[in-house]
């Protein structure tokens, strides 16, 4: 269901020049020119634009129309703000492009144009050299709002976007090559009604392990809802024409699991095979990591499940990428979500087929507990995991900062490859 159009919540700000019909989108209400105040009640999608071109943000209450509220825009003081859909109800809401006050995640989880696999996709890594941060800088120097758990990463135009576990799916962005990160409003401002049907004990807006990808010109945001320690879970899907548009469609349930299943439907990851076909991998504990093929139109499962990896001590958070003839499966293993006492690690294996078998560097099948460890953390960064990979050369994950009472924070690194085709930092 899409957002309902707003009516009657905006009190017009004072304007100094004419406000033409082409200066605000159809269905929006004119409010103020850049530099003027706009009085508004509630939370709404706000457009900034002129002459039929617009960028969007989600704002709450009174605000001053200013270009700094809208990253990735090229408008000047002659542009206008106008108010559109309410973002306070229904099962869909806007990802804002506004610079909001810093938030931190309120929960942690237990956890051929694809943004995950094809080097020609919109999530493929940039080939430009780094100035301070960004691809080519090794361990990226991050600052700003870096608190995160189970982060996913992509780039749209010159803006990096990161989303992670938390209230309503938390959203961050960076306009300086991935160095400085700021908050924007969360994806969900209210619970879609169908969540309660499949996960009756789910409460509030606790959403886990989002996965952000682009396929065939559309952005897909897979996410999961569950309760800690249970496999009564569901994976849902939102989609949009672009992240910056802020207009997300609720595409509903993708797959669920119940207490009678031997798998857990959380931690989704969209990947595209070498022939351009979409697949979804997911899973946490129980019978491990699962894979299913998706319909290209609905982006939902069309066939049965294939088990890719299992581990007695815990396995979850799969990510699959394709590189130079191999599919690489990255997973998080062992104990998550215990702060500095976490034993989480990132491990991997590879296969010539997306359905496996995935073997580690020693030749052990990941279905039999195999997996070569890429990252086990260090004295400062404990329990790294919940990873995502942008293209084939950038990896993001969370780890617990031992110098900050075990707070979960995002880390971004270049992902390199040795002469035998195995990943390394």
UniProtKB/TrEMBL annotation:
Single GO molecular function: hydrolase activity
Region annotation Disordered: where it falls in the sequence: 112-134
CDD domains referenced in this protein's UniProt entry, alphabetically: GH43_BsArb43A-like (cd18829)
SUPFAM superfamilies cross-referenced by the UniProt entry: Arabinanase/levansucrase/invertase (SSF75005)
UniProt-recorded name of the protein: Glycoside hydrolase family 43 protein
Keyword set includes Hydrolase: yes
Keywords: Glycosidase, Hydrolase, Signal
Signal peptide region: 1-20
Superkingdom to which the source organism belongs: Bacteria
Pfam family, any one: Glyco_hydro_43
Family of the protein in this entry: Belongs to the glycosyl hydrolase 43 family.
Pathway(s) this gene product operates in, as recorded in its UniProt entry: Glycan metabolism; L-arabinan degradation
InterPro entries to which the protein is assigned, alphabetical: GH43_arabinanases (IPR050727), Glyco_hydro_43 (IPR006710), Glyco_hydro_beta-prop_sf (IPR023296)
Biased composition (Low complexity): 112-132
